[in-house]
Design goal:
single chain
Length: about 325
Amino acid sequence: MKEAAKAAALVVLPMVSGYVLRRAGLLKRSWARPLMAFNIVVGHSGVVLLTSWSIRMKGELILLTLTGLTLAMVNMGLGRIVGGLFRLPRRKMGAYIITSSMSNVGYTLGGLLCLLLMGERGEEALGEQVIYVAYFSFYMVLAIYSVGRHYGEGGGKGFLRSAIESFRDVRSMPLVALAAGLGLNAGGVARPAALSPVTTGLIVCATVISMTSIGLTVELRAVRGYLRECIALGATKFLWSPLLGLALCHLFGLSGLERKVVFILSLMPCAIFSTVMAELFKLDTDLANSAFLTTTAFFLVAVLPVLVVLLPYI
């Protein structure tokens, strides 16, 4: 539980700092978008490059990637259905779909918990988390950016045109980083041992920048206006997703550590990146922020203790 508290602190403290400093007039809300874009192009790309360069790929572990991708795609479709039932306008619809699809499975929470909760097998679990999210850079550019462009920035463009434009966007740099990392990996080029602390440092710095940027955009008063959406997204993240995750483990024959990793990651709250995407593509940032805040708070207070208790039996 102590390790889980450390991960929670790394997520919460920078966000609170960003919020307080903005309220005090020391930082500006307008800084959030360039900070987020910089973090994607430099921080996230760096983490993707270094981790994909060093992971040990096993044939059966590709099923972890397929599990993560399936969860994201199914939840995107579910978000479109629920958003339609709620009759959400365009900007809210885009934010809801992205927030439904994206969970905090990356290094800012899911990866940290895999590392910290699995004890002596923590580094192995973190490696499997990297494999689980290997789909993300492709999915972000092809699917998430396309939804963002369709419902927000330059709204109304077809999904095919939006996808093509997304590949030409500098914010697609993580995709280049993934290709470079996997190419070095496949080519047998060993990653220098000296880069290991660089990876850890990048993860910490990128998390701090992401959370501080989100703190700059947070409007606590807005949460009350999105309770219906937040409750629906909470049900998606904490009820539907873990059930689907365990079902996929059974379908794909995943067990042991792989099953535990899937269970941890399928229980993650709304992603930090959903807020980043809403900001970058001019969607409803208040909805994305409210969903991130409420589901993360509920996760830390109510879901995480249950996860710690149940994990040994998964």
